[in-house]
Amino acid sequence: MHILDAVGNTSMVRLRKVVPPNCADILVKLEWENPTGSVKDRMAQAVISRAEQDGRLQPGDTVIDYTGGSTGASLALVCAAKGYRIRIVSSDAFSREKLDNMAALGAELALVPSEGGLTTKKLILDMIETARKLSQEPHTYWTDQLNNHDSIAGYYSLGEEIWAQTKGEVDAFVHCVGTAASSRGVATVLKRYKPGIKIVVVEPAESSVLLGGQPGPHKIEGIGIGYTPPLWEPSLVDEIVAVKTEDAKEMARRIAREEALFSGTSSGANVIAAIRVAERLGPGAKVVTLMADSGLKYLSTDVYRRR
């Protein structure tokens, strides 16, 4: 078995403590079971393998991208497994664990300074521009995750797993939007099986641009880039839910204590939104969301650092 064969086929469990009475069941996919502890391993494998297949990525090339950390670690894992050099543009806005994880897997890091450790539209655009300049060097392949359609296909397997594990009994899928590739990939599969399924996406309330609000700084790592992501496909989405950063952090702490599920901030946001949907759907329905990554990636942050 190759390390990349360990990507996918993650477990699904039902939330038992944090869900109020008279709600639909909420099932969560434990995406931290992927090799780097994140759902992003799925897209990293897809974007690298597809670029190899059509010749965009050649032996000896250097892979380049901008990332808040989870995508970078996933790309670094795939590059280490396949023998490619990788250069990552990231920032001090993202957890120390994520930066160290990328470096441990062989990534060469270039860090763009943030405004007080917050994710902002300006930071994302500065990171993209830094990566674009690096990509102009010879023998490079820029995965450019916000514009890379190959990443959508990386999540088709996640949709297939959800359908199989629920035996087709799934009424809604809920997930945060960063690049929009994961929700789009899953929605593409689930709506093909069941056109009436509700696809609900989540964004930070402080930067609720998909709902027509203004971009603003927030601290839900990996989501909410401050503008509509290029891969966003509104025809696949039935509802958008805004969740405050502090509420997402507190829910992440609650599901660790009460459900024994140790996850990151975006997973807390996922659960808050899933509960809102489950309250409306009521008993007998099933809502699926993701534990997108592991809480081990956030131990140095104020999500879990002991006060």
Summarize the structure.
By secondary structure, this protein is an alpha/beta fold. It has helices spanning 40-53, 70-82, 96-104, 121-134, 150-153, 156-165, 181-193, 245-259, 265-281; strands spanning 12-14, 25-30, 62-66, 85-91, 108-112, 140-142, 172-176, 198-204, 239-243, 286-291.
Strand content: 15-25%
Helix-strand pattern, N to C? EEHEHEHEHEHHEHEEHHE
Biggest sheet, spatial arrangement of strands: 1-2-10-7-8-9
Distance between the termini: 43 Å
Residue share in helix = 25-40%
Low-confidence stretches: none
Rg on CA atoms, Å: 18 Å
CATH topology group of the largest domain: Rossmann fold
* Large-scale geometry: globular
Structural class: alpha/beta
Going by CATH, the architecture of the largest domain would be 3-Layer(aba) Sandwich
CATH class of the largest domain: Alpha Beta
Largest sheet: 6 strands, mixed
Instruction: Please work out how many helical segments DSSP would assign.
Output: 9
What's the number of structural domains?
Answer: 2
Let me know the average pLDDT: 97
Let me know the number of strands. 10
Keywords:
six-stranded mixed beta sheet; four-stranded parallel beta sheet; Rossmann fold; 17% strand
